[in-house]
Design goal:
Biopolymer transporter ExbB; ExbB/TolQ_transport; MotA_ExbB_proton_chnl; about 230 residues; single chain
């Protein structure tokens, strides 16, 4: 009986220690959102930039991919109709395709009968218009890539200023509070750099997609002009 009574305080102490360890673990194992919010008010514009960049990238990616879809047999159908003198049928083929390349070639078909230079100018202008539509808002990703890291650094600097102000008010340096506060403020810099890198990658991915489409459109435009130069057209 006396042995059981002597073990009670030890069991109680072990239970208290276990609870303390669990509380400390819960405090350290913050979820991502809680960790980001510890970066301070500057995290709000940084997160807004992230969502803006994400929306722009997804929307532009889908648009450019749809515009880049191969029009199976488009050029062959146009060539067949043009050589047969069926310009209306060739224009109808372009309208049914409704892609960037088809709209550009349609503009050239409506100019058939005029000098080749006029047709080339019409195709070139239509191509520039299509490219400008595809590049819409892509530059915003480049802006985000530059602004997000700077916002992160600004948040960290303000945080460090606040830490040293608290040290001055306290009249002494507490290494624990300084290091803990500094790690929290570095969250802003890490978030800004991460979002900036992602925006930079997205910006160049979209630009490469547009450049590939431009090359394809230029190739088809040259083939179309060569078609018009054939005898009997």
């Amino acid at each position: 009986m006396s042995l059981l009574q002597s073990n009670l305080p030890v069991d109680t102490l072990n239970q208290a220690q276990q609870q303390a360890i669990e509380l400390a673990t819960q405090h350290e194992n913050l979820n991502l959102l809680q960790l980001l919010m510890k970066g301070g008010w500057i995290m709000i514009p940084i997160l807004l930039l992230f969502f803006l960049g994400l929306v722009i990238f997804i929307e532009r990616y889908i648009t450019i991919r749809n515009a880049s879809k191969a029009d199976g047999g488009l050029m062959a159908q146009i060539k067949s109709n043009v050589l047969s003198g069926k310009l209306d049928s060739a224009i109808a083929v372009c309208r049914s395709s409704n892609s960037a390349l088809a709209r550009m070639l349609q503009k050239g078909l409506t100019r058939v009968g005029r000098p080749i230079k006029d047709i080339e100018a019409a195709i070139e202008n239509a191509g520039k218009l299509e490219v400008s539509r595809l590049e819409k808002n892509i530059n915003i990703l480049g802006i985000i890539a530059g602004i997000a890291p700077m916002l992160g650094f600004v948040g960290t600097i303000f945080g460090v200023i606040q830490i040293f102000r608290d040290v001055e008010i306290a009249g002494g340096i507490d290494i624990g509070s300084v290091s803990g506060g500094l790690y929290v403020k570095m969250i802003a810099s890490a978030s800004g750099l991460t979002i900036g890198i992602l925006a930079y990658i997205g910006y160049h991915i979209l630009n490469m997609m547009v450049e590939r489409l431009i090359l394809k459109m230029e190739t088809e435009a040259v083939e179309f002009i060569d078609l018009l130069d054939e005898p009997g057209v």
